[in-house]
């Protein structure tokens, strides 16, 4: 028996070693590297690659200015963190999705920093910073109202050594320590397009895994075999779908196969992690394509089984092909939120519950128009007036919207709207209970319910509170608002009034997109109304459209133009960038073309360089001053702490270490320091 167990353990160890070798080998080959292993796998149960010859010829160092990346595109808090770390003698880079988005001329959701400093060294140099995470800890640095996540090369190096034993002793000749650090770190990232490093101090982008090649071809590919990658962290599947939805990427065959085969593993994720990933999908302007991909890979049946069953049933009915209200709700949400102006999760949770309520109990168009209009206008009287004006035209949504049979009095409308609002609240609460969720699937016996719930009770109560104003004494409801513009700060914070306003607008836009004129859909797959939103003016529409449709489109065109004006006033530079075509230029990255591109860029910039250069100098000085301020404050605090510690020890004797640390934390407060303008030399800035 002992011999059998020993043999079994040896076999398991070899299998594990084989997977380690496969993971490491795939990472190197996919990165354009050529590994050569000289050790026999059978000679040791813990066999791992000891020698590998790395082909560095395919490593790329690119000029970020070739892609139009300027320093002003990097957030100010990120610059402060980068400057502080660099001034202290550490290397610091932007890494991951923010580099990818900057190359594609898109606004990054956030900026992640990686540095050669250790986590404790990072924390020591900032006033508000905490280390979080167990498996892959990071330091969250609070700067100017933003949170910058800073990771350390040391963290990934330690984790990697446990798996592959890749050390500096294997560093090939001609490869410096910085390159080796970056290469080793990138091999532990999820996708090739997220493995890029950007050093803004020298305008260099580093690519060690053919990330630029996949970015040019808009391909999503894992760095290690997809099956191993998703087994290692199944949340990567959700992250991959979100990235693909936002950037319109295609999947490698291996990645697509792995997602399909491992989709059910997402049920093992923590509820908070599922909510986090879904919020990234639905709150940042790519909700509809994200839902389409979730449905395509059978993940919607797991995460949102009710809506997955609804879509599956709708797909089998030709008459419903053009009227999927569910998708149009999130299509209209995507038009209002962006990556840098997201909504809170209570908005999309409310939309899911609203749609579920309509499917469970379809409503007359006038009831839905009134509910959405009252939420939008913030007043019962104005909401009813608007709804009566626009509820006459038929709506093509089935089964959610019923054919209007007769007109309703204000009292009857109030009763029906309150009933619908109460149904929505019930659907919100049911999303927190496995039993209620399973009961809601009774109309879809052919579609299984996983019973997975991820909406927390506290969140459900907040979402239900959105509709309270429509349940209790609705006819006296008069909240009102001073401006028709969306306050994106309040929306992102989950403010209930702002959420009601945007929720009402999304539903009204959706109802408008389903209008039918004389038996024919006005939009023809949404195209006509979409064109009306973006190109036509109300004056031109007045001549060609049905009077009722004209009023709706006019209202929406004005709202669309208001949004454009608000975007422009919010950030002129960002609006100018968005006005350009977001097109990725295919560039062959050999040295000659690099130099040609540099010269052309210089010639182009020389004509318009004076004002931007002054602005950049001013920004650079500001960031340098902020960095100096942080360092001065840290130095002052250290001196104060040292003096107080010596005084207390002399007075009271030795203090317990834990008590002393607690006192230090209590004394750690922000102090104002006078800023002295100074601009360091280029030699001190650029290494």
From TrEMBL:
GO molecular function: nucleotide binding; nucleotidyltransferase activity; RNA binding
Entry protein name: Uncharacterized protein
Domain of life the protein comes from: Eukaryota
Region annotated Disordered, chain positions: 599-687
Gene3D superfamilies, sorted: Beta Polymerase, domain 2, cca-adding enzyme, domain 2
Limits of the tRNA nucleotidyltransferase/poly(A) polymerase RNA and SrmB- binding domain: 249-307
Feature: compositional bias, Polar residues: 675-687
Keywords attached to this entry: Nucleotide-binding, RNA-binding, Transferase
UniProt family annotation: Belongs to the tRNA nucleotidyltransferase/poly(A) polymerase family.
Taxonomic placement: Eukaryota, Viridiplantae, Streptophyta, Embryophyta, Tracheophyta
One BP annotation, GO: tRNA 3'-terminal CCA addition
Keyword RNA-binding: yes
Compositional bias (Basic residues): 642-651
One Pfam family named in its UniProt record: PolyA_pol
Composition-biased stretches (Basic and acidic residues): 599-635
Record domain Poly A polymerase head: where: 92-221
């Amino acid at each position: 028996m002992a011999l059998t167990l020993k043999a079994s353990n040896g076999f398991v160890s070899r299998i594990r070693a084989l997977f380690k070798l496969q993971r490491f080998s795939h990472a190197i080959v996919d990165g354009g590297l050529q590994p050569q292993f000289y050790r026999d796998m059978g000679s040791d149960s813990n066999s791992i690659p000891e020698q590998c010859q790395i082909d560095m010829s395919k490593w790329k160092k690119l000029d970020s200015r070739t892609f139009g990346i300027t320093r002003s595109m990097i957030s100010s808090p990120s610059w402060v963190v980068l400057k502080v770390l660099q001034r202290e003698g550490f290397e610091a880079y932007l890494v991951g999705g923010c580099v990818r988005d900057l190359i594609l001329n898109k606004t990054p959701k956030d900026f992640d920093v990686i540095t050669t400093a250790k986590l404790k060294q990072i924390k020591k140099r900032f006033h508000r910073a905490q280390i979080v995470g167990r498996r892959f800890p990071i330091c969250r640095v609070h700067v100017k109202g933003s949170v910058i996540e800073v990771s350390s090369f040391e963290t990934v190096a330690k984790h990697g050594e446990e798996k592959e034993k890749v050390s500096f002793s294997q560093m090939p000749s001609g490869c410096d320590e910085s390159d080796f650090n970056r290469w080793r770190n990138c091999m532990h990232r999820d996708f090739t397009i997220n493995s890029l490093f950007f050093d803004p101090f020298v305008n260099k982008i580093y690519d060690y895994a053919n990330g630029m090649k996949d970015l040019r071809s808009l391909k999503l590919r894992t760095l290690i075999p997809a099956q191993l990658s998703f087994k290692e962290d199944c949340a990567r599947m959700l992250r991959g779908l979100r990235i693909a939805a936002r950037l319109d990427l295609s999947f490698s065959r291996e990645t697509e196969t792995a997602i399909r085969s491992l989709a059910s593993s997402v049920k093992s994720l923590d509820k908070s992690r599922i909510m986090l990933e879904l919020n990234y999908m639905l709150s940042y302007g790519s909700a509809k394509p994200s839902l389409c991909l979730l449905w395509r890979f059978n993940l919607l049946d797991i995460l949102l089984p009710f809506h997955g069953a609804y879509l599956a049933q709708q797909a089998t009915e030709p008459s419903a092909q053009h009227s999927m209200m569910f998708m149009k709700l999130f299509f209209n949400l995507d038009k209002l939120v962006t990556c840098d102006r997201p909504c809170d999760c209570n908005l999309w949770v409310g939309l899911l519950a609203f749609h579920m309520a309509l499917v469970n109990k379809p409503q007359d168009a006038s009831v839905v128009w009134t509910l959405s209009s009252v939420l939008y206008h913030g007043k019962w009287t104005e909401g009813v007036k608007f709804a009566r004006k626009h509820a006459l035209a038929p709506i093509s949504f089935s089964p959610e919207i019923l054919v209007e049979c007769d007109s309703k009095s204000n009292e009857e409308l109030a009763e029906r709207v309150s009933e619908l609002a109460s149904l929505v609240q019930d659907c919100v609460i049911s999303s927190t209970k496995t039993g209620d969720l399973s009961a809601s699937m009774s109309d879809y016996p052919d579609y299984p319910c996983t019973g997975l719930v991820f909406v927390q009770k506290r969140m459900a109560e907040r979402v239900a509170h959105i509709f309270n104003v429509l349940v209790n004494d609705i006819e006296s409801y008069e909240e009102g608002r001073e401006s028709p513009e969306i306050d994106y700060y309040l929306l992102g914070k989950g403010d209930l009034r702002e959420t009601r306003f945007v929720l009402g607008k999304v539903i009204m836009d959706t109802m408008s997109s389903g209008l039918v004129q004389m038996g024919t859909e006005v939009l023809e797959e949404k195209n006509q109304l979409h064109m009306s939103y973006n190109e036509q003016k109300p004056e031109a529409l007045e001549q060609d459209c049905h009077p009722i449709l004209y009023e709706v489109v006019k209202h929406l065109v004005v709202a669309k133009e208001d949004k454009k004006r608000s975007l422009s006033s919010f950030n002129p530079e960002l609006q100018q960038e968005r006005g350009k075509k977001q097109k990725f230029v295919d560039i062959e990255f050999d040295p000659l073309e690099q130099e040609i591109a540099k010269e052309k860029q210089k010639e182009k910039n020389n004509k318009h360089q004076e004002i931007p250069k002054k602005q950049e100098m001013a920004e650079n000085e500001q960031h340098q001053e902020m960095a100096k301020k942080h360092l001065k404050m840290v130095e002052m605090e250290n001196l104060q702490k040292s003096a107080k510690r010596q005084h207390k020890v002399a007075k009271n004797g030795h203090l317990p270490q834990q008590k002393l640390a607690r006192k230090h934390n209590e004394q750690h407060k922000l102090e104002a320091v006078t800023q002295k303008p100074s601009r360091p030399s280029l030699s001190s800035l650029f290494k």
